Structure formats: structure tokens, C-alpha cells
polyribonucleotide nucleotidyltransferase
Amino acid sequence: MLANPSFHGRPLQFVPTVRNELCRPSACPLQLHSRSYQFLASSLGDKRKRIRRRSISRSFKTQFSVRASAEPQDLSVWAVGSAGVQASPFSVRIPVGDRHITVETGLIGRQASGAVTVTDGETIIYTTVCLADVPSEPSDFFPLSVHYQERFSAAGRTSGGFFKREGRTKDHEVLICRLIDRPLRPTMLKGFYHETQVLSWVLSYDGLHPPDALAVTAAGIAMALSEVPSSEVIAGVRIGLIGDKFIVNPTIQEMENSKLDLLLAGTNNAILMIEGYCDFLPEDKLLEAVEVGQDAVRGICKEVEALVQKCGKPKMLDAIKLPPKELYKLVEEIAGNELVEVLQIKNKIPRRKALSSLEENVISILSEKGYISTMEAFGSTETLPDLLEEDEDEEVVVDGEVDEGDVHIKPVARKTVPLLFSEVDVKLVFKEVTSKLLRKRIVERGKRSDGRTPQEIRVIDARCGLLPRAHGSALFTRGETQSLAVVTLGDKQMAQKIDNLVDDDEYKRFYLQYSFPPSCVGEAGRVGAPSRREIGHGMLAERALGPILPPEDDFPYTVRVESTITESNGSSSMASVCGGCLALQDAGVPVKCAIAGIAMGMVLDTKEFGGDGTPLILSDILGSEDASGDMDFKVAGSDVGITAFQMDIKVGGITLPIMKQALLQAKDGRKHILAEMSKCLPPPSRKLSKHAPLIHVMKVKPEKINLIIGSGGKKVKSIIEETGVEAIETQDDGVVKITAKDLSSLEKSKAIISSLTMVPVVGDIYRNCEIKSIAPYGVFVEIAPGREGLCHISELSANWLAKAEDAFKVGDHLDVKLIEINDKGQLRLSRRALLPDPEPEKQSAKPRSASLSNDNVVSPKTLDKGKPKKALTVSNDGSASRSAESLKDKTFPMKLSSPGKEAAKRLVSPEKDGPDKPQTKKSDGNISSKSGNAVVNGEAKVV
């Protein structure tokens, strides 16, 4: 079967024989099946009726449009095979910035209405555009859906979560879906109701070239190649600012040093969408960046237009169905005067109810006059002849024909049926007329629905500290828009993990979550997972507040901001910025400065309403002005610079002069809002809440981290259980963060960690240390939590001991001195070094009796056994001064018994004495610097 390329080798979903000029054999190679069809008229009766094929053809030819009503512009790119119509591959290289991107079509996704792959480096985006064969019910919202997915296989890895298959769309992907959707909508022609779907996948990611701006360009190219009737080709680029140089489509590494992150989408001659974040960038610099981006977009669009001329599909212009012009006149005649009065109602809810009542009144009047069809099942602008009869077996016969019998049926003249309008068309026209009158009122009278001038800001009220248990809270009200912002502080466990293609296992220490319940607009609606709008508005407010947060080294908390919209009548995302800033101050976060946000609107074509043609910029727009206006431009920042911005256009685009005017007017509005925020009552506390956790940051040697963690994390868990702290976080660089609810538990954990990670120095003295265990050769003493040392039996007492357990038991407390650290890091302790020396007459080479009950007598040779091989010796030149200095910061310095008593301690000689040689006595010189003693020739002298 020879098929038209626009059908992609697929049969129509609705296939009655349509006998019109579009499907004559000479005009369309598609051949439809020629069998009879039945129509179920259950909405018009309980019985099934049979209708001739010819009648159905006449009745439905105005409802359904046949896709691809014209021949392809260039048949040379189409190849007809046994599998159907196929396009030969076609690729083009387009210069973007300092490199090229490659666009290819006709190789992958040949059954889609439009399919394209766009390559930048080794990053590849695959995007398709498909549309339904049958139009959906008319609506004021174009039926466009966008889905973007990042395959982890594109980077050669899998998801870090439990489920390894890509599932629910992540927030990062939702944001890119919005970036794709927003510039596409303004280019769609009104009256096209075929559901359109854009699917985009990241097939390859090189970690260098980001895919988001590339996805916007790919979607614009695929839409231009498809049958969807769009006005112009769109493309998108990212602009970075490194130093004073603007970079088009910068790499990931370049963006790390960029002061600006701007994503711009537009057409050959206008800007459709911008979104970006910067670090207090002035307005003139932002305009320069937009100009650079517009030039780059213009170059891409010119190349894409040439590609569309070569291998694009014909547009379905015949599918556009607009309401009749006569209906506009009827609606204005019926409701024009009342609409003007209703639009002057200041409050949102009464105005909305009045508009809804007036709309119902218009429909009722048109129905009474017979202008509205009640046969909604057909969706046509003309009524069907009365062809359906009550008898199921009776066959409907067309005028002038006879049945199979001999009796002729008298022909009946067909009644003329006036042109009727559907109720949907009336609602669409009513909305357009309302928008027109609203814009006319603003331009002619210079007054808006609530009585403000174009530059005037609504009344602002702000207060902090509403929630006593929250770490920080603020209620920001601007007119009928209100945001309740709450700040929660925590440690890294509260941080949000990001698991996506671009950011590999990244943790966000600051995030803002925005929620828009239906009650904020006085309605009952769905409550559940956050919508795409909520995710997008939350990210905009988050990125606006990010630059004012202190660095992690100065404020080691994870910060979460929740903005719940309690009232909404325009610019709720900017209210979240203002409320979030006040809540951060109330939580004691040391922000750099205050931030405010404002939404700007526009009426572009003022000549239509008697203006001079100059675009009219509106400050702090209402919801109705957002819906009826031509622009929604959100700008957040301080009084000196911008931190975040987002612009959506509902017309063919705007120029740089218009954007400059909007930015300057937005700056004046921000200054006014910041001044009102400074009058907040009660003001923000600006100090840490008593309910906020305490975080202590300490630094240890990196090699000591394992001592804190322990085997399998046992040690750190035991510290948490013992002290009652919330968490202990360790980093490879030696940073330890302790999170606790109270100061006492924090101090306990600090002491334990300090003891575990301390660096012991020979000569240090440790008081009141507990004996943990006893061995035949000595006792093990805990000098600090988790740190034990051996006090040999020979160092336990000044007298001879046969067994350590004869004088000590587990649990006793001793004062010990560190006398040696061996190569394995083991500690040798001495109690004897802190005991007063015996009387001079007892210090001889002769055997001395011990003070124990067994009265054993030992020789100096016996005392040498088990003594350390290494010892600290004090030279005459005062080399012991380092040991004395080491005790300056100790809590308990060593004290001499009396100034005249010998203070030097006995140490074991590093060499074994002979059997007949007496033990040589030397002093280690480890004397408290506070005592004022010095060591000279091995004896302590009083200075």
C-alpha cells in the first residue's frame, strides 16, 4: 500500500469513508477501507440505530480532520519501502559558541511526527513529537505534555537507589520539562486541539556538556519538523559569565566558576523564555547576557529553518478550529457592560464568583435564543438532520430513494438548520472578551482591577515568630497573596541527596519546598504529590535565597525552608522569597543581606485599546493580570543586584528594550518591598532558637578518624548511646561534627573524642585513672576513654611487689605518668614516678625490705627485670625544658612535697647494670613550670 508520508505507515484511528477533495486519488495516495460502519448513539437513546455510510460521512466530516492534507514539500528525502514510508537520514552541523552541535533526523524514530537527535560533544539528546489523530475537546489550554528523562546508562552507571529502573520523574527532570514546555506554548496556534506529546531522553552524557539547554533546542527542532502547526522555530542556549566574558553553552567545569547561570529560549527575532540565577548581578550585565544569548539563538534558528524546508512535514493547518466571529459580537452585546462592572471588584473571590455567574447567564441567554447546541456528543457547529427513528428495525432512507419494495416514499424537503455554537466555544469566547476588557481598562484608565496604578505595589504586612516550636517562622502578606515560611535546622542527616545524571551523589545543605494547597484559592481540589508547578516555584525561590546563606564552615547547619501558600492572588513564588528570607533571619541564620521578589506583567499591544503603542509594564501583578496579560517576569534580589529571575511570554516574544524597562521597574519595586520587610512586627529574632540542635565542629588528625569510628562503626555508636547526642559526623579530612540537643551531652562527647584522638607526649601526667584489667606483669590503666596503657609491676610502687593484685584491684584509680611510647604506639605508664622518693639513707645499693607482709628482699638486679629499655635522660644543658613546657596547659600540674626535698624522679637506666653495680639515679626533669624549679646535674634545685 502506498501511503502518505504524513501518516507514517499507520491507519487512521477513525476510518469512515471521507469523500472530500483531500482524499481524492489524485490528491492523496492514501486508500481508505470501503466497508460499512456502525455508530453507537447511546447518548441520544437506549436503542442501537443503524445509519447508512453516506449519512455518517456528511455528519462527521466537520468534526474530524484528516492528518497530512498536503504533499510533502520535498519528496526527495522520503524513501518508500515495504515497511511503509521512511525518511532518509539527514544531518547538519550548527555552530554554537566556540563549537558545533550536530542535528540528525530520519534515522531514529521514523514513525513519530517529528524525531531528532542533537549531539554536543558526547552528550546526545533524542526527542520525539507525536500527536493524536482525533482532536480533543476545545479548551483554553493547549493540550501539550512534555516528558524528559535522564537514563543513567547514558553515563555508564545505574541508579543509587533501591530500584535500578528509571521510574518517577525526579525534581531535576521536572524542572527541565518546564524549560522545554514554556517556550513551546507561545508558538502554538490557537484552535489546534490535537493532543501533542514531546518525549526527550538523554542517551549519552559525557560529564562535560550539560543536557538541559540541548533538550530545549532538540524539542524546538522536533516540533518544527513535525505536523504540529507552530508559528516559528525555537532554540535554547545557556549563558555563563566567567570574569567579564560571556560564554555560550559553557561546560560543567566552566560553570563552576561562573557568576551567572542563564538559560534563554527564543525565535529568530524575539525572546520567549529566560530563567537564571546569579550572584547579585546588576541589571545591565544581565541585559548583556540576554543579548549574547539572543544572537546565539538566532544563529541556530536560521540553520533549523533551512533544515525544515528540506525535510519537514506539512503542517496541519486545516485542523485549526476557531470559534465563529459572530459569537464574539453576541457575547459582547450580552455581557459587555456587566463585565466592565465586574472587573472593577477589588477582591478576588467575589470577582471570580461574579464572573462565573455572568458566564452562566450568557450561556443561558444564548440557549434560550437557540444559539447553543445541546448535542455535545457530536461537537459540531451544525445540527444533524433528524435521521434517527424509534424503531430499531426501520432503515433510514435518503430523500428521493425507494426501498426494496414497490411502494414509493414521498420525498420530504430538508429543513434549514441555523448555525449553532457549542457551550465550550461560548466559554472560550467569554474568557477572551473578559481578557480584552481587562486590558482595555488598564490601558485607557491607567487603573487595574484593585484600583492600583501600573507601578504601584500592594499593601505589605510581615510578622515573625508565629510558631513557638519552629526554629524560625514568618508570615508574609502582600495584598491577597500570603506565604507561611518555616525554617528547620539540622545536621547532614537532614540534607537532601541528589541522585541524577549530572550531580552524582550530591547532598544539598539548603533546600526550599513550596506547596500550593487548593484552599489558598478558596477551592477544593487534589492534595498529594507536589505538582510540576510547585517544584518549579520552589526551585526558583530556593535559588533566589541561596546566595545570601553563609558558607558551611561558618554555619554548619542543613537548612530547610517550607513555604506554604495560605492565600494566592498572583506572585506566590515571590512571596515565598520574601517570607523565606524573614524566616531565615528569625531562625538565627547569619544571612548576608535581605532578599525580596516581585512579579512583573505587561500589556504589549496598547494601540488596540487606544494607547500609543508603548508596552505597558505592570508591577506586582494579580492572578487575573497574569492570565490575561502578555508576560510573567519574576525578579528576586537585593537593592544592589539580582539573584534569580524567570520570564514567560504568552505572545510572539519581547525585545531587549522591553526587558530593560521591566528590569528597572522591578528594581524600584524590590526596594519598596525591602523597606516594608524591615518594618516587620514582631521582628526576626536573629538568634538561634533554643529548640534548634547544637552543632560543634572540631578538627582532629585525619589518621585518627578510624579511632572515632571503630570497627564497623561500633565505637561511634557507643559514644552516641553513652552521651545521648543526636549524631556524630566524621570526614576524611579530619573534621568531626557533633550534633546534640543539649550542652551537657555535647560536652561529654567532645571529651571522649578529644581523648580518643589526643596525641600523647612522653612526660604527660594523668590523674585519677581507672584500672581496667590486671595481668601478672602489671595493670592496664585507662588514661582517657578508649586509651589504655600498661603500668608494669615494677612501676606500680616504690617498693617491691610480688603480684599486682596484692595491692590493686580492677576499678581502683591511680595517678600515672607516661614514660614511653613504643614503635607500635603502645603506652608505658609509671605510678612510681609520681611517688615521693624514700629517705636518703634508704637509697643505697643494699637490698631493702618492702613494706609488704611477705618482707621479701630484692637486689637491684631483680629490680631491673621488666623495666623499660628506653628512658628519658636529662642532660646538663637543660634539654628537659621541652618536657616541662608540655605540662603548661594541663589541669593538674605536678607539685613538690617541699622546697628542700629532692624532686627528681628515679628512672631506669637504658643499659643493664652489672650484678655488683648500684642502680644509677637520674631525673627526667618533668617538673611543673609553675613550681619554679629547675634541674641541674640530675638534682632538683630551688631557684
User: Anything to note?
Assistant: The domain at 694-757 is CATH 3.30.1370.10 (Ribosomal Protein S8; Chain: A, domain 1).
